[in-house]
Each structure stands twice: as C-alpha cells, then as structure tokens.
Amino acid sequence: MKPPRFDYHDPETVPEVVGLLKTLPNARMLAGGQSLMPMLNMRLALPDHLVDLNRVEGLAYIRETGGALEIGAMTRQRDIEFSQLVLERCPVMHEAILQVGHRQTRNRGTLGGSLCQLDPSAELVAVAAALEATIAVAGPKGTREIPFSGFPKTYMTPAIGPDELLTRVRFPLWPRPHGWAFVEFARRHGDFAVVSAAALLEEDRGKIKRASVTLGGVAAAPVRMKEVEKALVGQTASDALFRDACEACRKIEAMQDVHAPASYRQHLAAVLSRRALERAHARTGAAKMSS
Amino acid sequence: MSETRNIAVTVNGKRYERSVDVRLTLADFLRGPLGLTGTHLGCEHGVCGACTILVDGQSARSCLMLAVQANGHEIATVEGLAPSAERLHPLQEAFRDNHGLQCGFCTPGMLMTLVEFLRDHPNPTEGEVRVAISGNLCRCTGYQGIVAAALDAAGRMRKGG
Amino acid sequence: MGFVGRSVTRLEDAPMLTGRGRYAADVSFPRELHMRVVRSSHAHARIVAIDASAARELPGCVAVWTSEDVAEIPPIDFRSTRVQGLEPHRQPVLARDRVRYVGEPVAVVFAEDPYLAEDAADLVTMEVEELPVVLSADRGTEAAVIRKGYGDIEAAFRAAHTVVDLDLSIGRHSGVPLETRGAIARYDAMRDALELHGATKRPHANRDLLARMLAREPGSIHLYEGHVGGGFGVRGEIYPEDVLVCAAALRLGRPVKWIEDRRENLMACNHSREQRHRVRAAVDAQGRILGIDDEFFHDQGAYVRTHGARVADLTAGMLPGPYRVPTYRAVGHYRLTNKTPAATYRAPGRYEATFVCERLLDAIAAKTGIDRVEVRRRNLIAKTEMPYARDLDVIDTEVVLDSGDYAGLLDQALARADWAVLQSELEQRRAAGEAVGVGLAFFLEKSGLGPVDVARVSMAADGTFDVVTGAASLGQGVETVLAQIAADALGVDYRRVRVAHGCTDRIEQGYGSHASRTTVMTGSAVHIAATKLRENMQPGCSAQGSFESEHMTYPYGVHIAVVNVDRDTGGVAVERYLAAFDVGRAVNPRLVEGQIEGGVVQGLGGALLEEFVYDAEGSPLSVTFADYTMPTACEAPGIAVLLTEDAPSPLNPLGIKGAGEGGVNPVGAVIASAIDDALGVAGAVTRLPVTPPRLVEIMRAERR
Question: Does any CB of chain B come closer than 8 Å to the CB of residue A80?
C-alpha cells in the first residue's frame, strides 16, 4: 500500500498556495495527513499534485475575538485539546476533541483537514455544526466566509472551489454559564463515531432559553435537530422532556454500512441526543454553582 | 522517474542527508535508506500503531507522513531508546521483566507511544495507560503484560531508574 | 535448582526490544525484485483476457506472469486426509480460467521496488464474464461431508425426558497477526540451493510441499525463520505467493521479495470459524445428556487449502467436549462459497464446538430449571473415568482423554470467582437497573499433536549448549521454554542454552509448531536428548532424542466473565474475566498466562467485534482495520488467570499439555452465556459476533 506518483509542492504562504491551486490540475492539499495519507496509501486518492500545507505561515492559532473563537486551519488537534481557552470558553469542543482518534492522530491532525475531509462521523465537523461556525476560505478572488450550513456540499465534499483553501474557522461562543455535552458511540475507543450527539443548553432558572442539538454519523453531514430544539425552548428541563423530544430523532434519514444498519443509527440518534441533553442540563446547574 | 527532494533529517540524534522520492513514506525512509527496520508496518493506513515514532518529541504514525515532511525535524525511533549498548531504557527493561511482548511486532510502536505518555504522565493509573495505548494494536499479549510493563516502567522512572 | 516451573524472563526479547528484530520485511538481498500480486476484484467470474502490456512497459517492471507462465506448477496440495474428493478444489497458484473469490491471485508483477511494483500491478487489466456468486454454506458446492458418531442416537431422543434444539452461528473471522505475510526467495545456482526466508510454522513439511510443486529435491530447498509477528494458525501454511516467489527466484535469477499489505491480508490470508449448527440434545429428567445430534454447515470459501477438511473434522470430533455423551452424531457439510478460503485459526473447530456445546448446556439448564453449574457437574466426565476413550477420532487420531479433574477445576474456578457472592452482587446491581451478568463456559482443548519430534543437544567448547529442533517460533517463547527443559535435564543455567528453530538446514526432520504441540513434543524430545547428553557431557559431544506420540494430550479449563450491557446502545463491556486452565505442567507459568491472556482477547474479538462481511456481490467489506475491528487495550479487560497442574499428562516425560489455544477456546461461549444472564433471557445469543446492532435487535425482540 504505497502512495501513487504525484508532484510535490510545499509553499510557505497562503497566496502561494492559492497560486498553486489555480494552476495545478488535480491537486490535493496535505494538512495533518491522517485522512489523506491513508487514502493515498490505498490509492483511493490519485492526485497529480500534492500541496503540503505544513510549512505555510500564519495558519495555526487559537484566539478569542468578538464573542467567538477563531482557530486557524492548520491548528493541530493536539493544540485544541490542550488549549485553556478552548476548555474554558468552548467546553463542548474540548469534550469532543478527546474523542477524536488517538494521541498519535491528534498530534498531527488539523482542524482544517478534518473539516475539509467532511467524514460523516467527524467530531469537529459536528461541533462546527452545533455552534454554527463560519468558515473562511481564501481563493484567487480573495477571502469569503461560508456559514457552516452551506459548507457541506455532498458526501465528503465541501462547497469550496478547487482553487480555494480553508484558512480559519470562527466558532461563536455560548455565554457563561451554559450546559454542553458531546457524546458518541463508537465500536472501540478512538474509532470514528457510529453516531454522535452534541448538545448545548442555555437555561434560566430551569427553563430552556436556547438549545442546540446536533447529530453526527447519521447522514453525510451533521444534522441540526431543529425539531428537537423547538420542542425544548421555553420548556422546563426534565428527563421526560428530553426523552420525548428526542424521539423525533428516530425518523431521521440514516446511512447504512458494515458497522451499522440505518435503523440502528436512528435508534442511537434518539438515545445519544437524550444522553447529551441530560448531561448538558446537569452541567448547566454545575456551571451556575461553581465559583 | 519520480520527483526527488534533498532532505536533512535528524534521527536518534544523528543527522542524515538524503535524496528521496517525494512519495516515499517516512516509515519506508527509516526502514529503507536509513536501514532502521525497528519501526514496523502493520497496516499502512494509520490504525495499528506499529509504525509509531516521535517527531520533535510527539508521537506520530510514520506510515502517514512523507519522508520529505521530516526535513528539518527530529525523529526518534526505537533504535535510539536504549541509552547505550549495555543498558536498556527502563521501559525496555520493564517490557522484558513483565512479559510485555510475545512476537515483538507491535513492541517498537508501543515503546515509542509510552515514551511520550510517561514523559507527560509520570504517574498514570491503569485506565490511563490503556487509553494511552489504545491506538496501538497487539494481537499476542491481550495487553495485560504491556499495561503491567508500563506501570512498572513509570515506577522505575519516577525513582530515577 | 530447576528452571521448569519458574517464570524466568525470556531469552529472545533483547533484539525485539531494541528494534533489531528480523521479520520478513526486514530481510533484503542485493538486486532483489519486489513481487506484487494482481488480485481478482470479482467473487466469481470467467477470465476472458488479461492485458499486462502497459505493466510490462513500465520502467522498472521486469516481468509479469499469469497462469500460463506457471502452467507446470500444480495446485497446492493439502495434508493427507481420509476425506475423499477434495482434490478438484485445490487452489492454483494463479487463477486459470476462473476466479472464485475477491482477492484471488490472477497475475504477479516483478519490479525494482515495491512502489513501482504496485504501479505496475495497477496497470494490469482484466476482462471477465461475471458468474453467479454463492455466499452462504446453506448452498454452495458440497466438497465433503464429515460424519462422526457413535451409539444409537435416535433411541436416545426417543428416550429423552427433554430435548433442546438450537440454531447457532459463528461469524467469519480469523487470526490477523500484526505482521502481514512475507516471503523472500533466493537461488544460489552454484549450490543449486533455493532459499525461502520468512518461513515458519511447519518448515520441513512446507519445504517438502514446495519441493514437489517445483519439481526439486527437498534437500535443495532451505527454509529460514527469522522473527515472526504472530501466527495463530494462519501464517506458515503454503500459499500461492510462497510458491510464486520461489519459482520467480529460480527463473528470473534474482532474489524475489514479497511483503503482503494489510488490505491483501484481510482478503487473502486464511479466514476461519464461519459455521452454522443445527444442534439438539436429549437429556433425562436429571439433566444428564443422553445424546447430541449436530448438523452443521461449514463455509470453506472458494478453495480447499492445506488443511483439507480438518477444521470441520475437529469441530465434529471435539464437540462433546468434557462431557459424558453416550450417543452422538455429527454431520458436517463442508461447502465451498465465493469467499476467501478458510483454514485453521487458534483452537480451530473448538472455538466453534465449545460455543455450540456450552450453549446446549445453558439451554438444558434453562429448560429443565437445573442450575447451569449443577447441570455441568452432572455431565462432566469424572476424574475416575480417566483415561477416557471417546469413540471418535479427530485428525486421524483416536480421542482418548489422558487425564483431567474437570469437577475439581470447576470448584477452584468458582471459588476464585467467589461465585455465590458474585451472584448476589450482580443481583443487587440488576435491581438497581444495570444489565449485568456473569457467564460460565467449560471447555476441552487438545494439544501435543504427534507423530514424532526430534531434537539434538550438543555442548560447545565454551560450556554452552546448542539445542537444534524442528520447532518454529511464532513469538510464543519457544527458545526460552525449550532452554528451561534442556537446562534442567543438563543441570545447568538456562541462559547457557541456545535453541535453534525454524531452519530446515539444521535438522533433518521436524513437524513445526502448531496445534499447541511444541512444548509437549519438542519439549519431550529435548528432555530426552539432554538427559542422554548428561551421561557424557563433554565439549563437542551431542545427543539426539526423539519422542513419539500416537495420542494427543487434553488440557481443559473454565472461563467466567462478567459483562455490562448498555441497554440503549447494545454496547457490551467486559468488566471481569477469569480464565482457569489446567496444563498438566507449566514449564514457564508466566508465558502460559501470556498465551491465555492473548487468546482471551482474540476470543473477545470474535465474540463482540470481528467479522469478515461481504456484500451481495461477494465483495469483502472488511478490508481495513477501520472495518475489521480488533480489540484495543480499552476493550480488553484485566484477565485473572488460574493456572493449575492437577492433571499432568501420563503421555510424556514431563507431564505437559500444550497451552497455546486454551485462552481463545471458550470465549464465544462464555460471552454468550454472560449476555444471556445480563438480559435475563436464556438463549438470547445464538450468533457471534454479538454486535451492538444485533444486541439492540435481540432486546427489542424480547420486549415484544
């Protein structure tokens, strides 16, 4: 399982990357390599040109600006994992990243790489959906911003042009205190989630003011369960409320593969969204009580 | 022929300058041109962990890197673990003393993963060790001897062994 | 001060710990060519044409062969067997006019490096006519029917107070060692010597088979074993690739190296275990078995490989297990399908047989209301009945259980597990809402397959000793265990003993390492040789020992497992695991424990996680480690091992029984039993692996 032939480029600036992408036919960008290298080794990807992003300046950072976390595309998952800023301001991302692969893969894997790969089970993609992230993309005509809802085009294909590269993701932050949870069911520790559920809750004296419920692994792209969210807002949080609201997840259109039939994914969707909400709700209380 | 690049890589403290095919993986570079066959290939798609090495002190799957990406970086492999020809690293001793290996194929990857882990977590619980090696598959030991070895090594290293 | 019985540290570890191992992929010869196999992507098709022209033109590609280029090489033979009619189903080294499974070798390319070899292989194209595929042993060509039995089975069922009837399936899975297969062949024209490196398991037998296939004298072929990354039964048989590298080295005049990749390994290396059993048992009013009647369907895949029908034979012969079964009938339909060929994987036929037999015992307990431990007590063969001749043969050997105190080990295991306390603890947890349960499975193993083994021990000038054997190393610690045995017989320190294995050059006769035979057979031969040498222990002297055996030895054990079922997700966590095992005599207890621990986790893989799945067209879906999921350290529980030596074997000088397969044998059975207990539903589990979606379905069906 050796990679096929390709021409290799290792630019050092974003404009260089854009210039290369404009002129090179059938080019793929290499970020962390945790998704693309297996595909190259298995010859499922056959690019004529490989543009290595690992020497490009200025694409790795985590900062808080204007109520959002901005994270550069080449930020390693490891840095997200150990970021105090992420832990404090975006705990759902922290909880999610602990479930992404293994130490070795997080050391190399990047945020941008995960988003562009758009694996249906990818935890970071689900977090981006849950937080309604905005994705900044640089191309020959300059930068543009894509709201997450418009980012997945089709199965494992983002809506970015062949001459564009993802530079940054902006995650709007939920105010403190809020409840959060990222739960998933995988065959083994560190495996891609069969189904994942991300829940965010803002409550006021037990009444739900705002809710975000996102399911990963069921469809090609993460699904924001608006139906569930609507059923929650304005209601008093309770296990019964969550259980009943999450039944709607059973009707979601789900994928089928060697790991699970569609019916099982639908079942997990209901189970995990409920668990995520229960856990998020518990944390709302804890957040209120902590000093 | 395929495109080649000149690279300079430090491996186990020694600097190597070579001309490599751009598609040559880091694992094959270590095993082939450098003759360091201690790093093993078990799957070449980033799951089994047999190819684990350290890149600038951080564990990585060498089957998922290209040799050209290692240019200017420091790589540590199992061959550099023992402090001398006469002495073993505490991890190696612990593996030997706790029956942490049978066929030995996963062992280099396990060792390198644990080098990083114990450096960052000198006093781990058993559960933490199991999570730490969950990205390294073993088919022979059932992990029992490996976990015991890791905990034993942690103890030895805390004592300055 | 003896070494046998002590958990001394292994002699073989230093190179492996320091990255100086020499596995097949680490072997390189100057000017070597790299072989890459072009494999069928159709499960069943007629080959119309193969176009290798583009491949041949690729710079760096030296040759491309199809079946025409190896027409003189016969298909791969199997071990001698009493089963007739299997010859037409042998596998050719390259597919001739038909391909019969996805992954079947159709062509080989030889190139200057592995990257180029893969480039060239990708350029070979095929035109085929697709044919209908058969993917279930319910249909498929019936290559053989294995029949075993004794007594009047129909009478037993007529006299029965109760009958239990089960339909059980074991999913297709296999050993999957961490090192893929590899073979490097080199021909020395001056000595007319053909070398094959990367050999293991049965070097002498493999050499002889290669000699026949390549029309050479066996003495002109030399097999070499370096370090081996696990075998588990699947490595070390003769596969098409082994023959092809040899033929290529002979013909192309350069060394030829082939290293399998993981994708190939998962679709071309032997599969195993896939069987369906329709089994019933007749019992009397006290729950004692009157007879077992089993009809099973063995999914052999597309060809009969070197094991012939042995796995089906072992299944039928070992199914009664440790129990008194007065009448018995087994009919095994050995059928071909369009899947990867199957053969032996650790405890072959027994993982399956124990699953079936223990499910029967649990079903008997449930139906009669007799406690499942008690029902086993009533049926276990007693110590006083040993040796116990069962009116069956298994791999052409009469089944005579040599020794065993089954009830005694059961008592010890229950005591170690604190059974009564455990039961009440689990009851309390269940009352609090957890779906927790404990399973129990008793099993019989077999080991020490003969017919003979030979060893030579000699004393070197410096006072150290060399032991030369026909054993093979799969990583299990052969060098250490045999050194311990030799050391005791010689009265020296085991560190002064070097053990050679896996090389056909150094000893004329050898039967390799498989069927848990090495410690028993080679160990006994070493003991005899060393004992002889001791009579005249001078530098330069040597002695030969040989040990023959017409019967196998039968270790046995019982596993107890606690599981926690997540009722919502169908996930199963194994919380506690006890493996009790009597090996007669443990030469190195820690190494025996290691074999059990490793076997248990492989068994858990087969019970919960691993399965080779095919789509409707016969394309394999489990071709990466992301799809074929083996247990990691997080899925593996801590394993308590209770190792006993209550029943040494009377059949060899040291009383040894082989330990290699006792870890994996009962795991499917014990997990099924535990899940039943956790759900409170007898017979809930009828099929392995118990994946989360299947378990959710089982729970849903129960609620209706």
Answer: no
